[in-house]
Write a structure and sequence with these properties.
There is one protein chain. This protein has helices spanning 196-201, 206-221, 226-237, 241-252; strands at residues 2-4, 7-9, 14-15, 20-21, 26-27, 32-33, 38-39, 44-45, 48-51, 56-57, 62-65, 78-81, 86-87, 92-94, 103-106, 111-112, 117-118, 123-124, 129-130, 135-136, 141-142, 147-148, 153-154, 159-160, 165-166, 171-172, 180-183, 190-194. It is of the alpha/beta class. The chain folds into two domains: 2-139, Hexapeptide repeat proteins (UDP N-Acetylglucosamine Acyltransferase, domain 1); 199-252, Udp N-acetylglucosamine O-acyltransferase, C-terminal domain (Udp N-acetylglucosamine O-acyltransferase, Domain 2). It has a ten-stranded mixed beta sheet with strand order 1-2-5-8-11-14-17-20-23-26, with no helix packed on it. Strands 4-7-10-13-16-19-22-25-27-28 form a ten-stranded mixed beta sheet. The longest helix has 16 residues, at 206-221.
Length: 259
Amino acid sequence: MIKNNCSFVEDGATIGEGCEISPLSYIGAKVKIGKNCKIGPFCFISGKTTIGDNNVFLSHSAIGGPPQDIGYKGEDTELVIGDNNVFREFVTVNRASTKENWVTRIGNGSLFMAYSHIAHDCQVGDNIIFANNATLAGHIKVGSFSTIGALTAIHQFCTVGEHAFIGGGSILTRDVLPYVKTVGARGEGKIFGINTIGLQRRGFPEEVIKALKSAYRILFNSKMLLSEALPFAEEKYGNFKEVAYLIRFIKESKRGIQR
């Protein structure tokens, strides 16, 4: 173990060039950290954890701890984190269980605000905002460019589509539609139309937003059953890849969708 300025780095750990490790932080023996990362005080990074470049961990982050799963028996599962992420105070990210592919994975460019929690086996995309206390149970997939509101909890095995916007305080037990605003209490989640402002901010062309809105009206505001509305919306607007993705997401949902 190396003790450097009151931080502790176990033998075997790999620390990239330009990294800054603050006092009273711990880096485990199987941890690999890329270049130019900043690790604040009282952080605990452990397990078989691989971290990319330019990540920031503020104080008291707990990264790479074992899964909170009673079936876990100490197996050598992993956590893989990409580049350019920010983990604020008291964020927790667990490595995987053995029940899926043995890897919890986080992409690039996301912001995890204070007290966010990413559980075992989650697969998190790129450029996502997790507001304070946003919580993922195990085995959740989150699409890129999504926003998860403060104090939101998402049930295990759910999928959140790309560019989804989830309002604060939501408790969601079904899959969350891409491009759509979703808010709700447990079992009563409601959708509130396409996230127009968010898509405009991300540079979506106006014709794409109009097509998404029109498809949304067919799917959820018409008098047709969803099974009838899906092929109708696909025929009219399926040439837009964003609409095609929305329709495919609904068809492939295993838990059912919030609506």
